[in-house]
Amino acid sequence: MPRFSDRVAVVTGGAMGIGGATARQLAEDGARVLVVDIVPDGGLRNVETIRGAGGTAECLRSDVSTEAGVQAAIERAVSLWGRLDIVVNNAFALDRAGRGDAVRISEEEWDQGMNVGLKAMFRAARFAVPHLRAAGGGAIVNMSSVHGLLAEPGQLVYETLKAGVIGLTRQLAVEYGPDNIRVNAICPGHIVTERMETRWGEHPETLRYFEEQYPLRRTGTPKDIANAIAFLCSDEASFITGQALVVDGGLSIQLQEHLATRLARYAQEHVDTLKWYPH
Questions:
Q1: Beta bridge partners of 185
Q2: Which domains can be identified in the chain, with CATH numbers?
């Protein structure tokens, strides 16, 4: 039997990237998946891919930065299939977070980033928990980042909200553990999504520089993260809750002095080709 047979999952930001791969993986493993996204087709192309592979999926265009958008996603899944077992809170729009420090970031940029990156997860729990309880338990996976553990200048909103995701995850895990609801977070490193593939296709030499930063000497793929999420949602992870699982190819475990020296040497050897950096 597929490991998610008869289970129902909601994946926000499920049209493409990490969310798209996660929706496909959960469906491949037998789940009925509601793909939620703000893109114009609401993730229909990904749903068609899932159906073409024999899976069950529907899509909903919804803005999870609003209370109504989150509630609509949860209620739609339950109305379609009569239950809810898995919620993957992946949606995020980096352009809504704004770049800058505490002096330069506006309150509007702060609120926009928090609404879609953190508050949406609180709302998802509020609307989903009653249905997860009714199903006898379930799993929530929240998307954090290595940026939730390590800080970068000029990224006040992003770093703060991703750290907040970890705190929220732990509190929800303690709160709802007695209901057999497990809550975990994922902390990816650099993942080459469809959007990033376009950028890196124009600057392959800089992608190689990124890869050099990782002990595995490669960056991640959406499927790398989808596999980790599927594991955390599965019965194999039935005793795992409240954790921030780092899936970063070893990026965050390195001694910084050694990494800096190695990258400086690499940059010196490739100075003529390193002409673009995505930040």
A1: 142, 244
A2: 8-194+219-250 (3.40.50.720)
